[in-house]
Amino acid sequence: MSLPRPAPLLLAVETSCDDTACAVLDGDGCVLASVVSSQLAAHQPYGGVVPEIASREHLRNWPATSANALAAAGVGVGEIDAVAATRGPGLVGSLLVGLSLGKALAYALDRPFYAVHHLEGHLFSPFLRRNGEPAVPIPEHFVGLVVSGGHTALFGVEHGVATQLAATRDDAMGEAFDKVGKRLGLPFPAGPVVDQLADTADTVDTGSTGNTVGTVANGRYRFKTARCGTALDFSYSGLKTQTLRALERLEQAGGDLDFSAGRRGSDEALEVLAAFRASAVAQLVDRLERLRRVRRFDCLAVSGGVAANRLLRRRLGEWAARRGVDLALVPLEYSGDNAAMIAHAALLRHRRGLADDPRSIDAESRLPLG
Ligand code: KG4
Ligand code: ZN
After folding, report:
1. Nearest-CA neighbor of 343 among 116, 163, 138?
2. How far apart are CA 344 and CA 151, in angstroms?
3. 249-275: pLDDT as tens digits
4. Using CA atoms, how far apart are residues 343 and 125, in angstroms rounded to an integer?
């Protein structure tokens, strides 16, 4: 007979965009199950996420996704002590499906309900552990960097309360990766493949120095890093445009930009990608340097889909070691959208006594955090 799990046993739903996710977490923050059902195949023919299709797919996927999560956790739905769901931000039709399911479940089971901000989920996800191990305690003070397809933002977190310090003024970092990848014929989301291709470029790794702005790849391609004056804010649209222009020029000069279906275009295109990635990551390091000049912090927690980026993980690791900052990088399996991070944020709310009334919560496509 297995030992009872530490209470509360939480079930979370996350449907803010195109992934249908359900997770079960125990009171120690151990992830008992985290199931993410991807809708990519349904959106593939359109080259991006189609909101109406996303809502319909969430409804279609939910029964199997939740059944799989409960089965993997080895618990029956009646054993769940609390329910959580993402309230926003995201696609409103997608949010509505998951939030309604979560609210209905909490109401029907007569259990507490936690409405979670999507970014709050990402923000605390670096403290989750894999293989059913308990989550590590959240530091009283830390800086959170969330880098995803929809967000690039810095937060100061004090005793579990987040304040936004900076955000992107235009594109998110992941969005820039996706748009650059699209130009090479890569399917959405192109970020992971752009990252892999950049790794194969024959470039001179200039390493990371104190001067992180204007990193050069192979000396041939150099992209300016957006400065945004002295602000902490991010900007990725200029870098995206510079990169697309460089690719355009390359194509006009006879370079092969076709990387679709496993094809390998020209080596120069790979160099462009490597320079793009280096500059994108350099901007993050630059903003962390700026922040350090005005705010002391000992811990940096990095999360979001783009936190899987290999150069980002390397450069931030080097930067943190140089500056004596503890680096908490989200485990790869929780970097993209998932429900374990939503359950975890709900557990932290539960510990602070912050439950919500399911009858008075609505989905919010735009919802600031902090
Ligand atoms: O957090 P996430 O799953 O969804 C949002 O909330 O946006 O992040 C998805 C984003 C996509 O833009 C995807 O291309 C990007 O993360 N991404 C990457 C990598 N892995 C995922 N971007 C760059 N390098 C990667 N290795
Ligand atoms: Zn996300």
Report:
1. 116
2. 20
3. 999 999 999 999 999 999 999 999 999
4. 10
Which residue from 117, 173, 306, 338 has its CB within 8 A of the most atoms of ligand 1, so it is best to mutate?
Answer: 306
The two tokens of residue 305 are 């889909």
pLDDT tens profile 133-150: 999 999 999 999 999 999
How many helices (H) and strands (E) the chain has is answered by 10, 12
Cβ neighbors of 187 (< 8 A, separation 6 or more) are 40, 44, 47, 260
Please give the structure tokens belonging to residue 170.
Answer: 């235009």
Give Cβ neighbours of residue 209 (< 8 Å, ≥ 6 apart).
Answer: none
Say what percent of the chain tops pLDDT 70. 95
Q: What is the CB neighbour count within 10 angstroms for residue 181?
A: 22
DSSP secondary-structure letter at 203?
-
Q: Report the alpha-carbon distance of residue 18 to residue 338 in Å, rounded.
A: 11
Cβ–Cβ < 8 Å for 157, 142: yes
Per-residue model confidence as pLDDT tens digits over 294-313 = 999 999 999 999 999 999 99
Residue 226 to residue 214: CA distance in whole angstroms: 9
Cα 308 to Cα 333: distance, rounded to the nearest angstrom? 9
Look at strands 216-217 and 221-222 and give their pairing: antiparallel
**Which residue's C-alpha comes closest to atom 7 of ligand 1?**
149
Query: For tokens 């965009």, what's the residue?
Result: 17
Pocket test for ligand 1, best of 18, 177, 302, 342 (most atoms within 8 A of CB): 177
What is d(CA 277, CA 266) in angstroms, rounded to the nearest whole number?
17
